[in-house]
Amino acid sequence: MRSLAALACAALMTVTLPAAGQDYPSKPIRVLVPFAPGGVVDVTARLLTQKMSERLGWSFVVENRPGGNGFIAVTAAAKAAPDGHTLLMAHTGEFAGNPALFPDVPYELERDFKPITMVSDTPMLLVASKDAPFNTFAEVVAAAKEKPGTVGFSSPGNGSINHLAGEWLALQANVKLLHVPYKGGAPAAAAVAAGEVPLGVVAVPAVQTHLRTGRVKVIGLTTAQRTPYDKSWVTAAEGGIPGVDSSNWVGLFAPKGVPDAIVQKLYDEVKATLDNPEVRERFAQAGAVTGGMPPAEFLARIKTDAERYKEVVKKANVKPE
């Protein structure tokens, strides 16, 4: 009898999971964003949900919950009902940066979430003010070796992925740079354009205007691969600093208990949306490439990034604010 009961239970589960996927969504889907409107995560969430609504007729509500190093939005998503109607759009910092920086992060990736897919991936740039006395990675390294700890670079804030990318570059080049934090990517890029600081580690959207006006020049990329946005930009490895591969990805996550059938349905529909040429072009205009990797592959990428940043934080002795 017990065997029959177990078989019946297993059969019920196999029926229930696909049914959950077929009936989903049954109400508007809330997407929590750990940042204020206008940032890369918010823009990514709104572009994706808009295009999914157009394709599928699904209803979305993007809800911004900034503050607390992302803890507020991420913990709220982790505690949400596991029915797939509350999701999280987050970036490299929440799941690869924060665990490296903070001793007590109130969430854990594999305990609390199911990664759905990477939505976009944006390389970061090492840029210099137009009057800075260097144009290449080699010249930056030479200047830093001549005056250790005096060549400054801006970032959107202490402990940001941009900050960690800058420290990673310095570690691999065996030099010491001076980190100058600002409150956001746009102010960090503006500081370089104004000559307040000679260097900056910034994402493409933050620096586009300054590149067009010629107030900022690109030293190169913090990624291992060149970007289709501008194929002339060299990687750090090509510039003589091997082993650096830091980008700012944005991904979609579901609370841990969401049925696999719903996660699979979300993945399928997000990927189909990202494969649309118009959507790809919209992301490309901001220097990003669209994602779409399967959940297991995305999880592996996050874990690799987390280990890399953990090592950077330790070696560079980066402390959270």
TrEMBL record:
The keyword Signal applies. Pfam families: TctC (PF03401). Residues 1-21 form the signal peptide. It comes from the Bacteria. Gene3D superfamilies: Bordetella uptake gene, domain 1, Periplasmic binding protein-like II. Keywords: Signal. Belongs to the UPF0065 (bug) family. This is Tripartite tricarboxylate transporter substrate binding protein. It comes from Enterovirga aerilata.
